[in-house]
Amino acid sequence: MLTTSGSNTRAGPVNFYRAIEDREPQGIAEAVALTFMGVRAEKWPAGHLAQMAAFFAQVGYKHTDEWKEEIVFFDSHKPAPAALIFPDGTAAHLRPDQDPREAFADWLITPRNLWFARNIVNRVWYWLLGRGIIEEPDDIRSENLPENPDLLAWLQREMVTSHYDLKHIYRLILNSTAYQLSSIPAAQPAIAAAHFAVYPLRRLEAEVLIDGLCQITGTSETYTSAIPEPYTFMPDFQRAISLPDGSISSSFLELFGRPARDTGFESERNNRVSGAQRLHMLNSSHVQRKIQQGPKLIAMMRRIRNPRELVSQIYLAILSRYPTDDEWNLVAAHSQSGAAIGQAAVVDLVWTLVNSTEFQYRH
Q1: Nearest to 39 by CA among 159, 138, 161
Q2: What one-character DSSP code corresponds to residue 45?
Q3: What does the pLDDT read at residue 324?
Q4: Concatenated DSSP letters for 95-156?
Q5: What pTM did the predictor assign?
């Protein structure tokens, strides 16, 4: 992503530079620092930021006759910086005509430099546990100390020694005791959360929630873009978590707090629960149609005749577990028939489960 050049329609990483709003060297440096180092470089002294900006002083942009195509390249005709100083204060030594971005990328992932490794493992921890070891995860600085320095240092070493293998980092965290703790705290919730002594109860992100509803029901969403790249309407069964651009959205994603992805800050996402969100899940025709007309649910009702097996499959599809005896008794009583469960009862059951805390929250 840092050293890429070429057309944005042919080389995906080029879009990193294309998405930066401020394309001056200082603006690019701020975006690079936030993304790859987890720091807000605008808080640095002006001279410090200018030193980093020099690495991106020869990034060039040009348009083509193709619609929405843009080319990012190393512009050797722009004046080369007289001197290049890395953020740690060491001097960079470049070959003649070498793109300074290459030197910066090499510096970023040298084993002795933990800027990149620290940022990435802290972000992964934040994504999985809802709170960074350094909180906020994109505000790493000397005044913002990690909650558990030893844990952060260990994960950094693992990142470097595994040659930046993200699967290895995910495996370590997902198999840890911290990740597998109960969401019911043994102490005060705020204190327990700060010390990773409880798994944080948090609602599914907007994209995950709508993808889950679509997967359960076998339905699709309509996603549109005011800036068609490459579609005005995305193809059917496009997963929300794979939408490539913040301009591609839907009323559901906007209502449930999906960020516009304008700033790059993790805090841009609003995952606070609102009354409008609850009403949408409970009363909207959007969710009702998915449940009543979902081909996957209709096929399940036609295929499975045994009432208990049908209820079990619905629970497995939505909550990934079997119903308890008490839950089965409630469903049977609601259906008012021991021999079969009608469509209305199935719709009520699905509606109840997708509105449950167990479905809508990570726990």
Answers
A1: 138
A2: -
A3: 96
A4: -TT--HHHHHHHHHTSTT--HHHHHHHHHHHHHHHSS-SSSSTT--BTTB--S-HHHHHHHH
A5: 0.86
